[in-house]
Design brief:
Length: 338
């Protein structure tokens, strides 16, 4: 049943919501400033990390080695007084290496649980495509269910829980690419590039210092959990909902949106999870900018990262060197903005 005019918040409600979000989001600027002490020139990556954290989603990061992916999530964990685990995915990794296993204790003469590195607040799954499918599935199950089963016991993971999985676009030999259904579980896929020349000079100077700068713990994990509840209160108008569904439906049925040229290029479009994640990421983006409502620019800002890994390309698209970014750009330029 469509919402009526009476369902739309009054201006006073919007002002109150704006004020509430302005107060609740003060820590975002503090957190960003703290991370910028050690992360130079990767503002978009830091923003996407915060969006994933506030929207309770996970991030798939693609970039060549040496672009501060590990440093970014480690610094974020330090700034939030949270537990950090880095897991290097290799072809010989087993699910037990990830989630833990039962071991026999000679002292008590019984089996006890030894928890694996997945029991942390922030997980860096480095080069996730290096590990076999069963290991990838073990991690993705923990991401989706926020729990793991060892023996006959189920253990819940601590909140906040954020997985940053990295993929190396180089050296694809001997890798196990993530299936589409598993990639879809990541809220965003972020592609990061090399820093600019001035940023690189700053990185160089920083690393030549006697003491490398470090982040300080400035907030508690409980603040993140509270902020997540406030993010869900960010107002999403019905016109914005229609805009989101139009964008996602254009990836499935481009001909219905006067995008006939895309029909032979798209093998499959975004799932309903794409619509949900687009809305949540836009709410978190608005929260970071201390705004109590979502505007079309928020949707356009996060859309490439949310849809990049959810659109399948045909052989024809690959032959013509057309990327998912090209398709998303065409869709955003064609779908009517409210």
């Amino acid at each position: 049943m469509p919402r009526t005019f009476n369902d739309i918040p009054e201006m006073t409600d919007i002002r109150e919501l704006n004020e509430k979000i302005r107060l609740e989001s003060v820590f975002v600027n503090q957190l960003t400033a703290e991370m910028q002490k050690v992360i130079i020139g990767q503002k978009e990556m830091v923003d996407r990390l915060l969006i994933g954290l506030l929207a309770n989603g996970h991030i798939l990061l693609e970039g060549v080695p040496g672009l501060a992916k590990t440093l970014a999530i480690k610094s974020l964990a330090q700034a939030i007084k949270a537990k950090f685990s880095r897991i290097q995915f290799t072809p010989d990794l087993l699910p037990a290496d990830l989630i833990g296993t039962m071991i026999y204790s000679q002292k008590t003469e019984e089996f006890v649980v030894r928890k694996g590195p997945v029991f942390a607040n922030f997980i860096l799954a480095d080069e996730i495509n290096r590990a076999p499918a069963k290991v990838q599935s073990a991690l993705l199950e923990a991401m989706q269910e926020r729990q793991v089963t060892i023996g006959d016991q189920t253990y819940f993971l601590d909140e906040p829980f954020l997985v940053l999985a990295t993929e190396n676009p180089l050296e694809q030999e001997g890798t196990y690419p993530l299936p589409e259904a598993q990639v879809d579980r990541f809220m965003m896929k972020v592609v990061i590039d090399y820093p600019g020349k001035e940023d690189e000079k700053e990185i160089l100077r920083q690393n030549m210092q006697q003491v490398f700068p470090a982040t300080s713990a400035i907030i508690e994990p409980s603040q993140i959990i509270r902020a997540r509840k406030v993010v869900r209160e960010v107002y999403l108008d019905e016109k914005i909902e229609n805009y989101i569904t139009d964008i996602v439906f254009a990836t499935r049925y481009p001909d219905q949106y006067k995008l006939d040229r895309l029909v032979p290029l798209i093998s499959y479009g975004g799932s309903p999870r794409a619509s949900i994640n687009l809305a949540m990421a836009a709410k978190a983006y608005a929260f970071i900018r201390q705004r109590g409502y979502v505007i079309p620019e928020d949707i356009r800002a996060v859309c490439p990262d949310v849809l990049r890994h959810r659109i399948g390309l045909t052989y024809e698209a690959e032959a013509e060197n057309i990327t998912t970014e090209d398709i998303i750009g065409d869709i955003l330029n064609t779908v009517e903005v409210p």
